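Bug #77: duplicate submission created two jobs. Keeping one. Sequence:
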Amino acid sequence: MTTSGEEPQEQPTTRPGSYGEIAPGVPRYGQYAPEGWEPPQDVKDAQKAATPSQALPPAQAYPGFSGAQPGGPQQSALPYGSEEHLAPPRRVLLGSRMILAAGALQAISVIALLAVLLMPSVKASVVDALQTTLGSTPELVEVYSDPTLINVALFFAFVLSIAMTASYFWLARKIRRGANWARVTALVLAILSLMFLVQPNPLTIVQVGLGAVGTFLLFGPLTKEFFAARKANRGMGKN
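Kept job's structure:
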């Protein structure tokens, strides 16, 4: 309402979802403050009078904060036990893949031995080749002349080859997950595999070389930190 002689005052229009003015000079909700704007003095006084319990804690108190205050001590970019620290480094990934490749070559031996066991013609060819190679050793030639001994030897070689293939894949999987015992076991097996080079063939040379080089990559400063971090993380999970 207006009295006579007064001009009607224009009412501020508000849009749905908008907020009115909080105080003179205070921007509305959702608006940007103009350049150089400062809160009113009573707001500043209220902020200064806030008790310590009402004040926000320092940023370091929040979980996941890894920054550093200006002038304070710098923190590590990769804190010990973080997901980045627990991720396998390139050397571990490459080493585990080379061990997997060696296991794939061992799997080829499994298939070859299975073919020898199931196909008589292939078995006969293999026996003839062995007798020709070992012709200077009469004792071995006599052993390979016994079909029963040949079948037993091939069967044990087949079982051993399966076990070796499974060991390659299993150790590579455990190494990638940070199991230090798997790394040590791979080193022992890599040293023992050098005995297969007494009578080498191309497949054996490549297989032993992949396993040895892959195991060598698992030892170093960065890989040592990775396996130590994984071990500490598993220890924290048990507690």
